[in-house]
Each structure stands twice: as structure tokens, then as C-alpha cells.
Write a structure and sequence with these properties.
This protein has 503 residues and is α+β, with helices and mostly antiparallel strands. The protein is built from eleven helices and 32 strands. A hairpin with a 5-residue loop joins strand 28 (452-453) and strand 29. The model is unreliable at 1-31 (pLDDT under 50).
């Protein structure tokens, strides 16, 4: 009898401990879904994070007006092959009134794919020790293309006279002098990481089309090994592989969609009578709509209507560059251009939206190579503005990611805002300058609440006081580091804000 009581008591204790264990795990999951935790992971920077400027090559493969804007808005890192090329660039920059203070020249050899700094250029990675490094993926084979099926064989755009695939070792090696001349460490990635086909949100999620598996398999890196390397080296804990979307092409995802923030995707929408209309729609309904953001909820999906600009080719409006509160958009000299710019303005409030045509006849400087490649118009459906630019990110940046409140909440629900903040300058956050700002929609004055720290030095929260049903609340988060870096989320706050309504 005593033995039975002892066993029964043990069972109760075990059930209690199991219950506590489950509660603990649920709490951990809840905390993890509210915040980004870099922890032991490396972190690859998202496109919209603070940048020093933009990397391009000389002679230019972009409109000269775009080069002027990039230099005036931030800084132009210009890759030249030698002193003669530098002097030539300086002559033209002076004629275009580009200040020499806004230009840094990088000396490096240029291969067949030098124009596409996006593809061979390096990503910015912060290691788990908060050290800044450039990550250099393999870029050995020139521009593989494939059909829509993920298991289609690769075809290469450039081959030599003996029908051998033309190598791009020169471009692959260009990141070495780039990192050295800028004074940054360089991480050599052992896999293909073609920039136009890799988008990331800065909080551990990446997007690519499935051609990336074919490229790496061709290089000898199998699928599981590729994913494991991306996790350990780039911090991609979640890798969303999307279907190829071109009948035959390079399948770079930046021509299909754009990440606007951690929870928003902008994806192209072809005309109803275009052969790819159903392909794009299926990707939205059967793939993107099924995905969860890092904050464990469906993505907000926006559409940008595209149109034919040459036969059946589609204007690649998603192939735009987001850089420090400005979006640089390629224009294709068709009526749809103005609608595309308006879509970008609606999607990115507070950002400067700038459009750029690229008719070669309007350019003061066009090389023979550029003319032969593009004939009359410089942008292509699979090769536009984003492809030929690459940010150089700020190593002392202040990182912020916010889990926004659901758009509609109950009046009894606590309106808690969660923010992850990392000061990569190492100087520390300015005391009492990490704040949540909120107001009722329509009011002018902002209320400010200091953010409180939780279980990590990088995790913060604040609660907006409960309000009456029927009200809409706008809010944003700000922080300042002792190094002088200031950031808000949304990035263009208070012009842009997060908001929610109370039932």
C-alpha cells in the first residue's frame, strides 16, 4: 500500500515538473517570437539598414544622373582598374559637379561581370561578437540561367570559343582589394551567394529562387550543406526558397519581389493577359502567403503592377535600390512608370522615391561594350538598377527591429511594443534616449515612454496605455548611441509610423 502511495506521489511530482517545463518552454517561445536575438549567430545586414554609400564601377553601367544622385545623397564608392580610369572618372565627375569629398576610388581588376556589383559584391555581416566583416560568396561561373522547374539544368550565358563556360574569377576576386582598401575584414564563403538572388530581412531570414540550389550543386555544394553553411556563416536561420518565375532566365529574385521590412513583401504583378500572370499569382497564393515572418505571423504582401516594355518583357520595378531613406527606381520609358513610382510612394511613406530612365542616346558617356550589350536602352527585365549597385554598410550602425502591434486589437488587450536594439559602435546607448513615441491619430503632440529592458541587453519593451474602442493609435521607436548614431523604426518616422485600431 505504501509503495502504491509512493508511486502515485512520484507521478504527481513528475506531472507537475512536466507542466512547469512546458510553461517554461512556451514562455521562451513567446519571448523569442517577440524579439530578434542574435545570440551566437552571425547577422547579415538588410538592404534598408544604415549605409555609408554605394559601390559602382567605372566606366559607368548606370545613368550618369543616378551616379550624381548617389554621390550627392550619400557617398559613391567607385571601382576603377587603374590611374588612367580614375583620372577619366574624376574629369567626368567634375563636369557633373560631383564633389570629390563624396567619392572614394577602389582599385581592382574588372572581369566580364564587373557591372553587376550586386551579384559578385559582398554582403555585410556582424559576427556574434559584433565584429563587422564583408562576406564574399563564390562567383566563379558567369551568369547561369535555367527554366522554370527547380531541377532544370543550368545554361551559361557566356562561353569561350571552345564552348567552355567563361569563368569570372576576376570579379570573384574583386572583393579582396575592396575590403583591404576600405579597411574591413573579409569572410570567404565556400558557396555561391549571387547577390541578385539573395534578399534578407536582417533578422535571420533569407529569400532566393530555387536556381540557387542548382548553382551550388554545380559547384559541388548540396542542398543541406548549403543551408547549413548559410545558417552558420550568414545567420540565415530561416531560408525561404521560392519557385523560379521566368520561362528561361537567371531567375534572380530581385526582379520578382522586394523585402520592404521584416514583415512586408512587395511583389510584381504582370498584366492579366501576360503568360506569366498566373505564375506570379501562384507564387503569391501558394508560397508567399504560406510563409511566416520572423515574428511568427503572415507577411503583409503588396503588389506593384508591371507592364510590357519590349515585346513580352516586363519592367523590373522591384529591381530598385533602398538606401538611407531613398528608393532609386528603374524606369522603362512606358506609361506604367508613373504608376510604379506612385506604388513605391504609397508603400514607403517618408522615403524619397527617385526614378531613372536609361536611354543610351541621352548619356554623355557610353562605352562600346555598353552599347553592344544593350543596344538602345540600358535597363533590362532581368538586369536593372538594383543589379548594378551595392551598398557599403555602416560598421558602427545602430540596429533596431520592432515587432509591431496587430492592426486591430481588443480594447482589453495590452498594447505592448517590443524592440530589439543593438549598438554596433560599442559605445553604448544614450540613457533615456531609447523611447516609444505614441499619439492618437489626428493629434499633433507625441507622448514619449522610456523603453524598459527585459531579459537581454538588446531586448526592450514599453506599453501604450489602454484607449477607448474606435480609436487609432500611431507609434514609433527611437534610440541614440553614444557614438552619435540615431535611428527610428519605422526608418522615416515620424513621417511614417506604425499604427493600430482598437475595436
Amino acid at each position: 500500500m505504501n509503495s502504491v502511495k509512493f508511486d502515485y506521489l512520484n507521478i504527481l511530482i513528475l506531472l507537475f515538473l512536466f507542466s512547469c517545463s512546458n510553461i517554461s518552454e512556451k514562455n521562451v517561445e513567446k519571448v523569442e517570437s517577440n524579439y530578434y536575438s542574435q545570440g551566437i549567430h552571425n547577422r547579415t545586414v538588410a538592404e534598408w539598414e544604415p549605409a555609408l554609400g554605394t559601390l559602382v564601377v567605372w566606366p559607368l553601367s548606370i545613368p550618369h544622373k543616378l551616379a550624381i544622385e548617389l554621390a550627392n545623397d550619400n557617398h559613391l564608392f567607385t571601382m576603377v582598374e587603374n590611374e588612367d580610369a580614375r583620372k577619366d572618372a574624376e574629369k567626368w565627375f567634375d563636369e557633373w559637379n560631383i564633389s570629390s569629398d563624396n567619392v572614394t576610388f577602389i582599385y581592382a581588376n574588372q572581369g566580364v561581370d564587373a557591372w553587376w556589383t550586386r551579384d559578385w559584391g559582398p554582403s555585410a555581416v556582424f559576427t556574434h561578437n559584433n565584429e563587422y566583416t564583408l562576406a564574399d560568396g563564390k562567383y566563379i561561373y558567369s551568369t547561369p540561367a535555367t527554366g522554370m522547374a527547380c531541377n532544370d539544368s543550368l545554361q551559361f550565358l557566356y562561353k569561350d570559343q571552345n564552348n567552355k563556360v567563361e569563368l569570372t574569377q576576376i570579379d570573384d576576386d574583386a572583393t579582396i582589394p575592396l575590403a583591404k582598401q576600405l579597411g574591413f575584414e573579409l569572410m570567404d564563403l565556400p558557396f555561391n551567394n549571387t547577390g541578385g538572388n539573395v534578399l534578407t530581412d536582417g533578422v535571420g531570414t533569407a529569400f532566393s529562387t530555387c536556381i540557387i540550389f542548382s548553382e551550388n550543386n554545380y559547384h559541388g555544394i548540396e542542398r543541406e550543406r548549403f543551408l547549413q553553411l548559410n545558417d552558420s556563416l550568414l545567420g540565415f536561420q530561416q531560408y525561404n526558397i521560392i519557385s523560379n518565375f521566368e520561362n528561361r532566365g537567371i531567375q534572380h529574385i530581385d526582379c520578382l519581389l522586394k523585402l520592404l521590412d521584416e514583415e512586408t513583401i512587395l511583389i510584381a504583378e504582370p498584366p492579366n493577359d501576360h503568360e506569366l500572370f498566373s505564375v506570379y499569382n501562384d507564387i503569391v497564393s501558394e508560397e508567399l502567403s504560406m510563409l511566416k515572418s520572423p515574428y511568427d505571423r503572415p507577411y503583409r504582401i503588396l503588389r506593384i503592377k508591371t507592364a510590357r516594355y519590349k515585346d513580352e518583357l516586363l519592367a523590373a520595378y522591384t529591381n530598385s535600390l533602398i538606401l538611407n531613406k531613398t528608393v532609386y527606381v528603374p524606369l522603362f520609358d512606358i506609361p506604367q512608370d508613373s504608376i510604379a513610382l506612385k506604388t513605391w510612394e504609397d508603400a514607403m511613406p517618408g522615403y524619397n522615391i527617385k526614378g531613372f530612365k536609361f536611354a543610351l542616346e541621352d548619356e554623355p558617356l557610353v562605352t562600346t561594350q555598353l552599347k553592344e550589350h544593350y543596344q538602345t536602352y540600358g535597363w533590362n527585365d532581368g538586369d536593372a538598377l538594383h543589379c548594378r549597385t551595392r551598398a557599403i554598410w555602416n560598421p558602427d550602425m545602430l540596429f533596431i527591429s520592432v515587432k509591431r502591434i496587430k492592426s486591430i486589437v481588443e480594447s482589453s488587450q495590452g498594447n505592448k511594443v517590443y524592440a530589439s536594439i543593438i549598438d554596433y559602435s560599442g559605445t553604448g546607448l544614450v540613457e533615456n534616449k531609447s523611447e516609444l513615441h505614441w499619439k492618437l491619430s489626428g493629434e499633433i503632440k507625441w507622448n514619449s515612454i522610456p523603453l524598459s529592458q527585459i531579459d537581454s541587453e538588446n531586448h526592450f519593451f514599453a506599453q501604450i496605455p489602454n484607449q477607448n474602442s474606435g480609436t487609432t493609435i500611431q507609434y514609433y521607436v527611437s534610440a541614440v548611441s553614444a557614438s552619435g548614431e540615431k535611428e527610428t523604426r519605422p526608418i522615416t518616422a515620424p513621417v511614417a509610423t506604425y499604427e493600430f485600431s482598437i475595436k
